[in-house]
Amino acid sequence: MSQPMTLDRIRKDPSLRTLIDAANQHLAAQGFTDHGPRHARFVSHFAKEILCCLGYPEREVELAAIAGYVHDIGNSISRVNHGVSGACMLFPLLLQMDMPMTDVLVIVTAVGNHDEDIGVITSPITAALVIADKADASRSRVRNGTPEPGDIHDRVNFAIEHNRLTVDSERRVIQHQLEMDSSSSIMEYLTIYMQRIAMCERAARFLGCTFDLSINSHAING
Ligand SMILES: [Fe+2]
Ligand SMILES: [Fe+2]
After folding, report:
1. Ligand 1 centroid to 83 CA: how many Å?
2. What mean pLDDT do residues 69-86 have?
């Protein structure tokens, strides 16, 4: 008999832990920012928060937390199409863990569509995962605590001192507030995040909300 899967059980699973670490190492070797357990916890927490604040049922909130935690394991194979490869890897793993097929499908659809290059938002869990994932930009993602000379991703992340994601359920606004220091610029942020901001706007719209980004108290969109 299938048991409801919880984030707690997912976090304790040795195979998933190994995959998250392997994905992080594969990206570290290519110079990408942190994609390890810290990123998994961040995305899991905020995917859950978004649906919780908007009043979604408890089970959907928990599935969003699970999807957020495992969303990047496909990077253990390749960065290219890592959402789809991660979904294919999760399918047998989650079934082996006795997760009901209906829940497995919800998770793999969200994971398989979280990447801005090919992702399509067709469920609240996908929408919450996308916003939580794209909102994780901060100094703590830069490896070695210092930006590589000339690397715009490290430079932008290093400049972000404060990162706040909040949900106003009354006004139906998902607000992302960033504070950057002068080691990068809003222009550089937009250069690498424009496609992701557009995807967050689509995700928020799916949830019946707007996505409002502000940087250093300047309204960027909306
Ligand atoms: Fe990803
Ligand atoms: Fe991610």
Report:
1. 6
2. 98
Which tokens go with 90? Answer: 């999760």
Cα(222)–Cα(217) distance, rounded to whole angstroms? 14
Q: In three state form, how does the secondary structure of 26-62 look?
A: HHHCCCCCCCCHHHHHHHHHHHHHHHHHCCCCHHHHH
- The Å distance, Cα 36 to ligand 2 centre, comes to 9
Q: How far apart are the first and last CA of the chain?
A: 47
- Catalogue the long-range contacts made by 92-99 (C-beta closer than 8 Å, 24 or more residues apart): 93/15, 93/16, 94/5, 97/5, 97/9, 97/13, 98/2, 98/3, 98/5, 99/2, 99/5
**Ion ligand 2, residues whose Cβ is below 5 A away:** 72, 133
All structural domains of the chain, each given as residue ranges with its CATH number in brackets, are 7-219 (1.10.3210)
Query: Residue 61: how many CB atoms within 10 A of its CB?
Result: 22
Taking only the tens place, the pLDDT of each residue in 59-77 is 999 999 999 999 999 999 9
